[in-house]
UniProtKB/TrEMBL annotation:
Source organism: Ruegeria sediminis
Keyword check for DNA-binding: yes
Family membership noted in the UniProt record: Belongs to the site-specific recombinase resolvase family.
Region (Disordered): 137-158
Record-annotated active site: S10 (o-(5'-phospho-dna)-serine intermediate)
CDD domains: SR_ResInv
Superkingdom, taxonomy of origin: Bacteria
Keyword tRNA-binding carried by entry: no
Name this protein carries in UniProt: Recombinase family protein
Keyword line: DNA integration, DNA recombination, DNA-binding
Domain Resolvase/invertase-type recombinase catalytic: 2-149
Length: 211
């Protein structure tokens, strides 16, 4: 039985070292790390990425696939749900570092299966929605930059960075409370509430400052 940690790393997300360190700090014992650098989670399915497709060859019944969150598998609803269900049918367990979610095909109870599948669908839909919100915020920031002088529109420099914003957004999608998110992200409750209150503007602020 092998535990494989998969990471998708882009310039807008956490580094590979950070993701692996976070997983080990959470108590995961990792046998192998597989990572794709600079791969889009929206336009490129997991099976189409250079390293992602290796998972389909390497994972066997009884193995565990660990990811920071389901958005590392992808930000396309159909691809993420299809991928998780494929691995579960193969007897692979999928676990997330954030909120310690576990998905497997062990249960045969239809009610439990329905609850599990609904949660998978919700998390995959959240990942796609977050990607679309990020893209819209970045587009808005660029348009603003074209029409305003930098000193006129930048406003106050954000008290959070891209990694912290991503963590707030991801944990919010799993229903975590404000205090829990603040502790995990190393931010004040007020900052977390402000980000949650307008995630698009939070993204736009980072874009305006080139963060």
């Amino acid at each position: 039985m092998t535990t494989i940690f998969y990471a998708r790393v882009s310039t807008a997300d956490q580094t590979l070292d950070h993701q692996v360190a976070q997983a080990r700090k959470a108590g995961f014992t990792i046998d192998e790390v597989i990572a794709d650098q600079g791969q889009s989670g929206v336009s490129t399915n997991l099976s189409e990425r250079p390293e992602g497709r290796r998972l389909f060859d390497k994972l066997r019944r009884g193995d565990t696939l660990v990811v920071r969150w389901v958005d590392r598998l992808g930000r396309n609803y159909q691809d993420v749900t299809d991928t998780i269900r494929h691995f579960m049918r193969q007897g692979v367990t999928i676990r997330t570092v954030i909120n310690s979610m576990t998905f497997d095909g062990a249960t045969t109870d239809p009610t439990q299966q329905a609850v599990r599948d609904a949660l998978i669908a919700f998390m995959a839909a959240t990942a796609q929605a977050q990607a679309e919100a990020t893209k819209e915020a970045q587009r808005a920031g660029i348009e603003h930059a074209k029409t305003e002088k930098p000193e006129a529109y930048r406003g106050r420099k954000p008290s959070y960075d891209r990694d912290q914003l991503n963590l707030v957004r991801e944990m919010t999608g799993t229903g975590a409370g404000t205090s829990e998110v603040a502790r995990a992200a190393g931010l004040s409750r007020q900052t977390v509430l402000r980000i949650r209150g307008d995630i698009v503007e939070a993204e736009a602020a980072l874009a305006r400052w080139g963060m």
